[in-house]
Amino acid sequence: MQNVTELNQTQSDKIQWVTLSAVTLFHVLAIGALFTFSWANLLAAVITWWIAGSWGIGMGYHRLLTHRGFKAPKAVEYFLTFCGTLGLQSGAINWVATHRMHHAFTETDKDPHTPHHGTYWSHMGWIFRGTAQNQDEATQQRYAPDLVKDRVHVFMSNYYYVTPIIAAIILFAVGSLLTGGIFGGFTMVLWGIFLRQVIGWHSTWLVNSATHLWGSRRFETRDDSRNNGLIAALTFGEGWHNNHHAHPRSAKHGLAWYEFDVNWVQLKLMEKLGLISDLYGYQIEKHTEGEPLQEAA
Length: 297
Ligand SMILES: [Zn+2]
Ligand SMILES: [Zn+2]
What we know:
The protein has helices at about 10, 15-35, 40-65, 75-85, 90-105, 120-130, 135-145, 145-150, 150-160, 160-180, 180-210, 230-235, 240-245, 260-270. The protein is mainly alpha-helical.
């Protein structure tokens, strides 16, 4: 275990005040949302959570862009990436570079968010300090060369924060129309943007913190990754994290029948519909002992 006083360079960097202020404001407004419940508002939050967390972050940023677990036409790739920008977790280029570093250097000083540097650090501390949310050009070039040469990805990464603003305008209009007043529009924005965003952030962050701390291990990987059913339920299947670290390119994270993986089910459906191809899913029963425990990311 790393001594907390000997932290790596990224943790001693200055505080990212804009990020800290935005995340704080979102939490305050998310608490405010709890006093304005309606079934329509709840539905708005569930739908936007599904689009951002599952289509965008899970299937788009993670399983497609970072690990290339399947092939998709550019239109599908850009659509899933666009959904990811609704998740407000920085642009895809930063996200992918940071996540590829996490796989390359898991639990070392170069890992952007290992619990070896503290549980709070691995959950959200790393967002507020350091460069993980805003990698320099050399780092982006090194860890996401496939994305930095794509002008559409560069554009979407530069303006990722515009998507939640557009979504907020749409939700405001829908909520106002449904209730016949702007207060209804305002509360739908509280639910569909602020409360949903806070839940979405913590769900993703739990993959970095909780699934490197608590859960079971099917594979003896060199890192501390775990399979955690509760986190999988919150993240549409991303919580089968030990499986994922053992076989990063597999777009299938839940490997047993009881490891429910919503993102994998949707990807299978997309393959059947002809929207994606070459979908790779590791199959546990086909493999026997003696194979390498950890694939390259
Ligand atoms: Zn991990
Ligand atoms: Zn990954």
